[in-house]
Design a protein that fits this description.
Layout: H1 2-20, E1 34-35, E2 43-44, E3 51-56, H2 57-63, H3 68-71, E4 78-82, E5 90-94, E6 102-106, E7 109-110, E8 131-138, H4 142-145, E9 152-158, E10 163-174, E11 178-188, E12 192-206, E13 219-235, E14 238-252, E15 266-283, E16 288-305, E17 315-336, E18 339-360, E19 363-387, E20 391-402, E21 406-419, E22 424-435, H5 439-443, E23 454-467, E24 472-490, E25 495-516, E26 519-532, E27 545-555, E28 559-568, E29 571-572, E30 580-581, E31 584-596, E32 599-606, E33 625-633
Parallel strand pairs: 6-9
Antiparallel strand pairs: 1-2, 3-8, 4-5, 6-7, 8-9, 10-11, 10-33, 11-12, 12-13, 13-14, 14-15, 15-16, 16-17, 17-18, 18-19, 19-20, 20-21, 21-22, 22-23, 23-24, 24-25, 25-26, 26-27, 27-28, 28-31, 29-30, 31-32, 32-33
Length: 634
């Protein structure tokens, strides 16, 4: 039965794609909201067959979110998990995939850490400074984005300055002895566009090891971030774009979660540098567009722990550093109003190293993972097809060549059909994905140089419907993913091996209603079933049920109120499914008042109901917290 449903999905996708190439007419003139992640080209959202959610800067500001992880908590199909206090390690699971199966980008720069065990990205200190929007693309996306995009892509797009120079400064204070200062400036002309933002966060935090387990030592967090973007447009058909983001943090952590895990001098320090330069050129009346870019990322972190009264013999010194350099050259051929070809070449080199030394009651342990590299060369091709402004499809293929395990081919097709008379959209996608073994999995003392890549197959089918009644739109999407040959740690051999496999399937529901011009309501619900293919158990920390509600109300022309609710159902903390984490509901309230056109007072209450909950067993989570501040614009 399972194979039959899967075959039906493949056949349906092929029929949609093949029919799309049978004949075609012009593009729509009404573009609507534009997204870029789904096709690596600007395309109206209504023409996208993939499952994609856009989080805008306006929504982030209304809800007063301070980190990208918190801004993504309401997105359907995403589960956000943080260990302990502010700044703690934060992971995102997309549609049941591992956290390392999500590719994270900022303006085209890969943010995944080559030195981490799985090549994942830690969202713990990623702030929302200078962000224009975040596009969340769900399902296997390796055809356009290669390794890590086995489960999906989170693409962060920063602000591009325009108009006369303008800026703002703000200060915020609140619970847990928290202070946050921000400043930004942006502007632009036809020739030059710029934006610059900086922020600083200081917080005493909470006990990461969990107050309920008798831990009371607070774990503070310090985080400084600067991000800038500069654009130069020398001619109407050419453009140069440069992006830089740098962050430095110091956060106190504990020796784990639960009883006796408090530690007063366990410190984690990290620094992150992301940079990119790219040029865009359009030739022959926009027939041929090309983009040439180079990206660089450098992530380093140090985990240090000195002896103390509670741990007189314990000592830890560890450091990890990962770098990625990527050169990419993309071509878009606007062959006809019905057909757009996208082709690209990429070469990427990852580099990582670590030095680990510890002393405990078990004795000393030393592990040095010397500098190692991996190179991947890639080529991809995609065709976008439009039939009569109603049927939009993409067909794509990709070949990646990794210098360790060899070549890997992936493919993907999507389709969207618009019934404009009833404001209905039918959509579907089918694709394959892969994730290359991380440098740690290949070369550390626990690694194996013979590892093969993780693989995935995923599909989804959906419906989006607009209604004139109360300006209502709703959507429903059924998805299914199969992961095979996954790399996991084998406790029998104490090495990484390709032994794991897993399945996930579920339903995503979304609704947006605007009963009044001043009031908007959004609702999202995800039901998901997961299974560890080796044991038959549910996957760790993936809830079956997740619900979110966001209400925004503007009143008195100068005031704004935002109410957010997130419910996360019960899930298991361990592979054996013996340790269950209870479900929880978080309610957040945010308000702002424009005193003048240049001054705003704002405040928020997080965890309004003061719920006690756990995202990871044993680790603490903050109770109710209140924050207030002032923002001055110029």
């Amino acid at each position: 039965m399972k194979r039959s449903r899967q075959n039906c999905a493949v056949v349906l996708g092929l029929v949609l794609a093949l029919c799309s190439s049978a004949g075609a007419e012009e593009k729509t003139a009404n573009l609507g909201e534009i997204v870029v992640t789904a096709t690596r080209d600007e395309v109206p959202l209504e023409q996208v067959g993939s499952s994609i959610t856009v989080v805008t800067a306006k929504e982030i500001e209304q809800q007063q979110k301070r980190t990208v992880a918190d801004a993504l908590r309401m997105v359907p199909g995403l589960d956000v998990v943080r260990t302990g206090s502010s700044g703690g390690t934060t992971s995102i699971f997309m549609r049941g995939a591992k956290s390392e199966h999500t590719l994270v980008l900022i303006d085209g720069i890969e943010m995944n850490d080559p030195s981490s065990a799985g090549g994942t990205f830690n969202f713990g200190h990623l702030t929302v400074d200078n962000i224009d929007r975040i596009e969340v693309l769900r399902g296997p996306q390796s055809t356009l984005y290669g390794s890590h995009a086995i489960g999906g892509v989170i693409n962060i797009i920063t602000k591009r300055g325009d108009g006369p120079p303008k800026g703002s400064v703000a200060i915020e204070v609140g619970s847990f002895a928290t202070t946050r200062e921000t400043a930004s400036i942006s502007g632009g002309t036809d020739l030059v566009q710029f934006s610059l933002a900086a922020s600083r966060l200081d917080s005493d935090g909470i006990s990461s090891a969990g107050k309920r387990y008798g831990n009371h030592e607070k774990d503070g967090d310090q985080n400084s971030v600067i991000t800038t973007r500069l654009g130069i447009t020398p001619t109407p058909n050419s453009e140069i774009d440069m992006v830089l983001k740098y962050g430095k943090s110091r956060n106190e952590i504990d020796n784990g979660g639960g009883t006796g895990k408090d530690d007063p001098n366990h410190i984690m320090r990290s620094s992150e540098l992301f940079a990119r330069g790219q040029g865009w050129l359009s030739l022959f009346s926009n027939l041929w567009e090309q983009k040439l870019g180079i990206s660089y990322s450098d992530i380093s972190w140090h985990d240090d722990n000195d002896p103390d009264a509670a741990h007189p013999v314990d000592r830890l010194r560890s450091s990890f550093q990962g770098q990625t350099v990527k050169l990419d050259w993309q071509h878009i051929l606007n062959l006809h109003k019905t057909t757009i070809l996208t082709m690209g070449l990429e070469t990427k080199e990852e580099q990582g190293s670590s030095d680990y030394y510890s002393v405990s009651s078990f004795g000393p342990y030393n592990s040095i993972w010397s500098k190692q590299t991996a190179r991947t060369n890639s080529v991809y091709l995609q065709d976008q097809i439009n039939i009569q402004d109603r049927w939009f499809s993409t067909i794509g293929v990709r070949l990646d060549d990794h210098d360790r395990f060899g070549s890997q081919a992936t493919y993907r097709f999507t389709s969207a059909y618009l019934i404009k008379q009833s404001d209905t959209k039918l959509k579907g996608s089918y694709g394959t994905g892969f994730k290359a073994p991380s440098l740690y999995q290949l070369y550390s003392s626990y690694g194996s140089p013979d590892l093969k890549p993780d693989k995935s197959i995923g599909w989804d089918l959906g419906l989006e419907q607009g209604l004139s009644f109360l300006q209502t739109t709703f959507g429903v999407t059924w998805f299914k993913n199969r992961y095979s040959q996954m790399i996991d740690f084998d406790m029998n051999t104490w090495t990484y091996t390709n032994v794991a496999k897993a399945h996930s399937q579920g339903l995503e529901l979304t609704t947006a209603v605007q009963p009044l011009d001043e009031l908007s309501l959004r609702f999202a619900y995800t039901y998901m079933e997961t299974e560890d293919g080796s044991t038959g158990k549910e996957l760790v920390r993936r809830p079956k049920n997740k619900l979110s509600l966001d209400a925004n109300y503007r009143f008195l022309k100068q005031a704004h109120l935002s109410l957010g609710l997130v419910y996360v159902g019960s899930r298991y903390n361990d592979k054996a499914n013996t340790q269950e984490l209870g479900g929880y509901t978080l309610v957040n309230l945010a308000a702002a008042y424009d005193v003048t056109k240049d001054m705003q007072l704002f405040g928020r209450i997080d965890n309004l109901l003061d719920r006690e909950y756990e995202e990871v067993y044993g680790y603490g989570t903050p109770g109710i917290g209140a924050y207030a501040g002032v923002k001055v614009s110029f």
